[in-house]
Amino acid sequence: MTKILLVEDEQDLRFSLVHNLEFEGYDVTEAANGPDGWDAAEDGDFDLIILDIMMPGIDGLTLLKKIRGVNTNVPIMMLTAKSTEMDKVIGFEMGADDYLTKPFGLGEFLARVKALLRRNRAEQAGKTSVRFQDIEVDFDNFTIKKADEEIHFSQKEFLLLKYLIQRPKQAIEKGEVLGAVWGYRSDATTRTIDTHIARIRRKLGDQNTNRIIQTVPTVGYKFVADLEN
Does any domain span residue 228? Predict the structure, then answer.
């Protein structure tokens, strides 16, 4: 499920936004001030973060800077009552991906949320290679290197790893993986996925730490390593 962090100090607005986001099927974590927002951002893996600018404790721009210091990939939308061009320029230069001025309609808000999520997924899917830890995965050439030494992966192992990488920090159901990697008409089972994950972990040196791929009980698997830009 797509996870969103909303940091907004106006209680009525926060309640309304959370209610509508959850109605759309998102998993929402809410915070009423900057410090609580920072704690949540540090502890959770989110697909989108929404920040109000004028907040007690830590203002939205300071929080934006702190988050960008540890996570350059998550899309961030700023909510603000300010509307000058310079305010927006400052926000974008500090790493914001979108900027919505209050008051705004719920329809526009939800459309902006969906657009940011789509764009981020497209960017992840469009990458030709990625790096994490001491590992490099080249999607075009179907190669994987660990500490600059190539590792042999079967086609299904490579496609399974690629599928997880392109959906970082997301819990992926086994049924979804079967359809995407093996095809729904295949005779492969969820046990097949477990076996391939075990092989991938062993080849990447992740079998004891699970710092690259984590098991999500009763659901499936999640790619949790931090991708380099």
Answer: no
Q: How many distinct structural domains can be found in the chain?
A: 2
CATH number, position 168: 1.10.10.10
8-state DSSP, 188: -
**pTM of the entire structure?**
0.60
Mean pLDDT by 10 residues, the chain (229 residues): 92 96 94 94 88 90 89 86 69 85 91 87 74 92 92 93 87 87 77 94 92 92 85
Angle at 86 (CA atoms; ends 80, 90), nearest 5 degrees = 75
Question: Cβ-count burial of 153 within 10 angstroms (0-12 exposed, 13-18 middle, 19+ buried)?
Answer: buried
Nearest C-alpha neighbor of 221 from the set 156, 157, 154, 176: 176
